[in-house]
Amino acid sequence: MTAAAHRDELAHTIAHIVCAVPGVAFLRPGIVDLLRASGRSGLPHAEGSPSGVRLTPRARPGHWDVDVQIVVQHGHRALDVARAACSAVRAALPDNPPAAQVRVTVTNAV
Fold this sequence. Notes:
This protein is an alpha+beta fold and about 110 residues long. The protein has helices spanning about 5-20, 30-40, 80-90; strands spanning about 25, 55, 65-70, 100-110. It is built from 3 helices and 4 strands; from the N terminus they run αβαββαβ.
């Protein structure tokens, strides 16, 4: 498996885990994904990393900086949802590397 394929697989795993966190409405789509969807049949972008999840490799193999952007459901505290999402992401990383930096940003509430 190539490094890019491994990164994309891990990003999809993280996306599914974060979307399962109570209070997460959805991952924030990026502008590229919105443009692709409007230019085609409206189907979401399937190849590559999912929108709302960005993985950046660290110096040590297998260690990642993770940036997740979420939209929170109305009636949930954004801070609690972001903390739960961050914990879920940390648990999903292989061998739970301590060097990984995980950022969860709440971009909106619906």
